[in-house]
From TrEMBL:
Keywords: Membrane, Transmembrane, Transmembrane helix. The chain crosses the membrane at residues 12-33, 45-63, 70-87, 93-116, 128-150, 162-183. This is Uncharacterized protein. The keyword Transmembrane helix applies. It comes from the Archaea.
Length: 521
């Protein structure tokens, strides 16, 4: 469920009435511009840009994050040419149509490439660039007109009328600045090809990756994953247990998956095709949970510096490649002996994690569902973990990653081990029983009942003040809250004495992972 998009709603509420007001004002007093009509060349350029912006906006409609922007912008930049022709009966309609169509055709190539590569963030960046070009043209034109009236007050009109027009053009510049800032802030673009899973120890990262793998394999054309690029600092450990096939075999055998150790890291790449056409490619890093509170710019710089020195590579090159599969493969193939040094291995892991975190458009914060069932100790541990998440977000915002021309990040808070919560939390258990269900698999994952479970869990977590602060911080764009289970059929182990509370997945039966992919695509 979407739980937080306050800031964007505020921007939208401000932008819509202001845009209507400005359109009304400019329509009413448009004859003022006829004193010094725009040159034909400028008109052709603006029409071309309108066509380009129109098709870019149409492409944005295909993505949930930018759909509102796309509808508004497509309407605006389809209306501008009509508005101009209506006010300018002398306009060369044929020339304007050619200019507009040329912009559409050229933009269509860019849009097709962005859509087919699932890079809607590129459309948002292009929209921001076009906004900047339009802003420069409008402000330049208004400033020129203001200058003309200022230096030639007696040539065509009286001084009083000139002063009135200077005020009008000056006000137009101020309003243009306000609209430009709002438009750029409203334009949302999220990179969907990289996803970072943030989670402390025992939060269920490895099981979560297996849930993603199972879902993409079942629901996408040609859905599959690489076996995992494993990096390990132990010469006696090849990391075979971390490969997808080994993890799946252990689940089928009913074994609890072992934790990922500090000297281990693995990068998985999940791929498939949406609608059989649009490629879906997620890069996911699995790592030891102890690292979750070490992800910050200071530690990243230290890691980059050490790797630069040991690999004899420029720091800029290390920064550029950190977090990518080819970089990890390069270290494994060409510098395996250096991985025997714990400090070097740690630097590789931190650089890979933080580099992937910076590149990722989607960030998932895992919340250990088992800790929710422990009202005192569990919630105190969660408070510390939420505090660690807040530190990382503050560090990230300090790097201006929410700047004008950068892609946005989209966040999700994901509660894991929902099947275990069912058996250990009386409130949730009673809620599910009231739905005539005995286990999670009895509840359709797209149902109102599933949403009711999530809302109940959100209310439980909201009693934790650090959690509320974390939610309040992530209010730039829509934030998701999802409760998932890797095995919705899981039940407590039966024994002679009764039912044990320990539960382990014995199959892959993902529940609510549809919402994860809705968030991620």
């Amino acid at each position: 469920m979407i739980i937080n998009n306050k800031r964007r709603k505020i921007y939208l509420l401000l932008a819509l009435p202001l845009s209507i007001f400005v359109a009304y004002v400019f329509t009413t007093i448009a004859p003022v511009f006829k004193i010094h009509p725009a040159p034909v060349e400028l008109t052709v350029i603006v029409e071309f840009l309108c066509g380009l912006f129109f098709i870019i906006a149409a492409g944005m409609i295909f993505n949930e994050d930018s759909r509102i922007n796309g509808v508004i912008y497509a309407g605006i930049f389809a209306a501008i040419p009509c508005f101009y022709v209506y006010l300018s009966p002398w306009a060369n309609i044929g020339l304007l149509l050619i200019s507009f169509s040329s912009g559409v055709l050229i933009g269509l190539v860019f849009v097709a490439r962005a859509v087919l590569n699932n890079r809607y963030d590129n459309l948002a960046v292009m929209a921001k660039i076009l906004f900047t070009v339009f802003f420069a043209i409008i402000v330049g034109f208004l400033a020129y007109e203001m200058w003309i009236f200022a230096i030639e007050p007696e040539s065509e009109t009286t001084s009083a009328y000139a002063a009135q027009n200077i005020f009008f053009f000056g006000a137009g510049i101020v309003v243009s600045v306000i609209l430009y800032i709002l438009a750029v802030k409203l334009t949302i673009g999220v990179r969907a090809s990289e996803i970072f899973i943030f989670g402390p120890r025992s939060s269920g990262k490895t099981y979560f990756v297996m849930g993603l793998w199972n879902y993409i394999s079942q629901n996408f054309d040609k859905g599959h994953s690489n076996e995992g690029v494993v990096l390990t600092g132990d010469p006696n450990d090849e990391g075979d247990d971390l490969r997808i096939s080994s993890l799946y075999a252990n689940i089928l055998d009913g074994r609890i998956l072992s934790r990922t150790y500090r000297y281990q890291m693995v990068i998985y790449q999940l791929t498939g095709k949406k609608y059989g056409l649009i490629p879906v490619k997620w890069t996911v890093v699995d790592y030891a949970g102890e690292y979750y509170d070490e992800l910050n710019e200071i530690n990243f710089k230290k890691a980059v510096s050490l790797l630069s020195e040991r690999l004899e590579m420029a720091q800029g090159e290390v920064r550029k490649n950190a977090g990518t599969i080819p970089f990890v493969k390069y270290i494994k193939l060409h510098h395996p002996e250096k991985l025997l040094d714990p400090e070097f291995t740690k630097s590789v892991i931190i650089a890979t994690m933080y580099g992937n975190f910076l590149k990722a458009g989607k960030v998932i914060f895992l919340i250990d569902g088992e800790k929710i069932t422990d009202n005192r100790k569990g919630h105190s541990q969660l408070a510390r973990e939420f505090g660690g998440y807040m530190k990382t977000l503050i560090d990230l915002e300090g790097k201006n990653y929410f700047g004008f021309f950068s892609s946005n990040k989209k966040y999700a808070l994901v509660v894991t081990k929902a099947d275990l919560i069912l058996w250990k939390n009386k409130e949730i258990r009673n809620l599910i029983h009231s739905m005539n269900a005995s286990k999670l698999s009895d509840i359709p994952e797209k149902s109102k009942q599933a949403l009711a479970i999530e809302k109940n869990l959100f209310e439980i977590l909201s009693s934790n003040m650090v959690f509320k602060n974390l939610v309040n911080m992530m209010n730039d764009i829509s934030m998701y809250f999802v409760c998932v289970s890797v095995d919705a059929t899981a039940e407590p182990f039966p024994t002679e004495e009764g039912m044990e509370e320990e539960i382990a997945p014995t199959a892959l039966a993902p529940w609510r992972f549809t919402e994860i992919f809705r968030f991620g695509l």
